[in-house]
């Protein structure tokens, strides 16, 4: 084995807010150490340097919203050994997927005076809809401790330790009082993927689902508790329609609420 | 001789953009700062959302300055509701904003801009010869992030910001724990400013119209009138009567102009020039030590303006924490009503203006957001026009780097800049 070269790390961005890749630069204590362990081969936000692939580890932020980007992700995949998506945009389509079930032409007219200058697909889709993804890291944004854990695991050649249970479990581990039981605050914690350390309940608010659906979810199961806590069907539908709106379990849960709303309204005119 | 400087991907800026300068002889024939971030349609899908959800949603416009988005949204919606949180809530909000300025300026000054002045590809390469300074920079940035994390729950997209205040107010002990790192960061920031003052600043000046908020007695964050160096002095609600935006084919970001005059500059250099008299003693003394006083019309020295603002924000954060007593309630509340509200705050990279119209139930009917980069975009292009003759005389690689450096003067936040508004004027080509 003569391969003494350090592994190449590349970061690519699609439609996103830059927050997930910024998480890497927010690792102030570890950044210089990480830079000693890898070669930054492509990371536009941090460096002018561009090294050719293949890349050993590729981090992808953002969702696919243009035909050009659909092409670009295929090229990146072809040059990547291990491709990991970071964040809700790359993993579930992100906040921009709120367009998916709406009229994008209308959206463009609302926002832009010259819609003809705008190039966009009608949908925002996750990276895995386009190419094979080796690992997905949840969150809007991702949690930087999880990111470091996965990078450390990859560099050491072991499997990453990332929990797949719900925020609810993390809340219990942290010893929080349940905001739903104690204060009647609607909370998506029972159906949301762990990773944040149950932040919102710790700050006395309900989880709004920014880590997306947990591995196994029972959205029907918490509907009653949410209604009892004072949320309306409209509130619940909107809660699922945020940063992981296009993740199938959240999409389905939203549709169930929309059905309830229609039933409640009764037959129209 | 026809010549083109082309940068396909602008590196070390937030978001994705490209730059093309075409020359005829040594005169530019076209300057295009192209922003090709795909549109994300925030103003469209904010319609129909509950007003309480808006701070969480608009945070996702930008991972680098989410606090600015949350603060502008809160101020605009509170304006519509007719509430004005004061006292400890106001102080905590200033503290949160200090945190964001510190981490964002720290990122820009040390990791994005300084490598230009010293000729490195990035801060990591720079660390090989200047590890101490990079480590100090990271320490300063970390102190800012620690504030946002303590108050907001996490550094990116804080979860604790609420219309009317916060979900939970921090305890005195939680904030006091930040003090040692903040004091160290403040001393480091003063040293760093003196170090950066010795950089080689390209000679370049232009007669800018600076636009920033101005408060009667504070360095501006969230409150004050919109003023300019050429006589504008208006309330945030009158922004649309004095400014307009143009949609140009080469960019998904709109270009803002002062009606009847054209491009303007917002951001640290504008704030510095318009509010120097409201800097705290410590920041002002640091600026005076390096002979950096207004008027300064050299955009490369925005680096120093950020350095001074780092000191200002660290100093103010320490003062707020030292005099903190928790508020009685973490937030004040008000029943929704049909109204339109306006909010304008100073994001690290410049003014960020929001306007929301809500219905009786507090659902958003219309949202309009004008981020700093759309305001500065025309100004950046004008700088490059004026810089062009100097670029034409330089070797290609050096000219490319200088052009990129001139763009980075504005710390453009390209992810933020791509989802705006209806424009009021159009350019006929
Ligand atoms: S997942 Fe959230 S934080 Fe990450 S890039 Fe997308 S919008 Fe930003
Ligand atoms: S919304 Fe849920 S997943 Fe996101 S930070 Fe809050 S508790 Fe965690």
From TrEMBL, chain A:
Residues 17-154 form the NADH:ubiquinone oxidoreductase-like 20kDa subunit domain. The keyword 4Fe-4S does not apply. GO terms for molecular function: iron-sulfur cluster binding; oxidoreductase activity. Pfam families: Oxidored_q6 (PF01058). Keywords: Oxidoreductase. InterPro entries: Hydrogenase_assoc-protein (IPR051349), NADH_UbQ_OxRdtase-like_20kDa (IPR006137), NiFe_Hase_small_N_sf (IPR037024). The keyword Acetylation does not apply. PANTHER family: COENZYME F420-REDUCING HYDROGENASE, GAMMA SUBUNIT, F420-NON-REDUCING HYDROGENASE VHU SUBUNIT G. This is Oxidoreductase.
TrEMBL record, chain B:
Fe cation binds at residues 65, 416. SUPFAM superfamilies: HydB/Nqo4-like. Mg(2+) binds at residues 43, 62, 369, 419. Pfam families: NiFeSe_Hases. PROSITE patterns: NI_HGENASE_L_2. GO terms for molecular function: ferredoxin hydrogenase activity; nickel cation binding. Its cofactor is Ni(2+); Fe cation. The keyword Glycosyltransferase does not apply. The keyword Magnesium applies. Belongs to the [NiFe]/[NiFeSe] hydrogenase large subunit family. This is Ni/Fe hydrogenase subunit alpha.
